[in-house]
Amino acid sequence: MNSQFGTAYADSLARDHVIAGLGGATVETALRRGDDAKAVWHAVCDEFGVPTRDR
Asked: Domain boundaries in the chain?
């Protein structure tokens, strides 16, 4: 996330942005509850339109 969004924004996004693809959870919440990190990353990519080549 840091390389895609920059450190400050990635930290804020992980902490504050609720992502529908994670069942309405933030990245931090999804990882804490045990979601697979790759699945979380793909949900972030879908939410923000990250191109396939950068996933």
From this structure: 2-54
